[in-house]
Specification:
Strands 1-2-3 form a 3-stranded antiparallel beta sheet, with helices on one face. It has one domain. With about 55 residues, it is of the alpha+beta class. It is built from 1 helix and 3 strands. The radius of gyration is 11 Å and the shape is globular. It is about 20% helix and about 25% strand. β1 and β2 form a beta hairpin. It is found in: Cytoplasm. Belongs to the DCP1 family. InterPro entries: Dcp1, PH-like_dom_sf. GO terms for molecular function: enzyme activator activity.
Length: about 55
């Protein structure tokens, strides 16, 4: 856990993936191929955030 806030600029070229097997986890891939993930406290928040980011 970092004490610093991580900021990622959202770009149209990014790919987002929410897997039903991991209901509270969102993976995303940036331009250079790096893959990151976001864990949600509530699994109910993940699908909505994923759809919002895909727009």
């Amino acid at each position: 856990v970092s004490r610093e806030t991580f900021v990622q600029i959202i770009k149209p070229s990014m790919e987002f993936k929410h897997s039903p097997n991991y209901e509270a986890f969102l993976q995303y891939k940036v331009d250079v191929g790096d893959i990151y993930g976001i864990w949600f406290i509530s699994k109910n928040d993940c699908p909505g955030v994923t759809e919002c980011l895909k727009r």
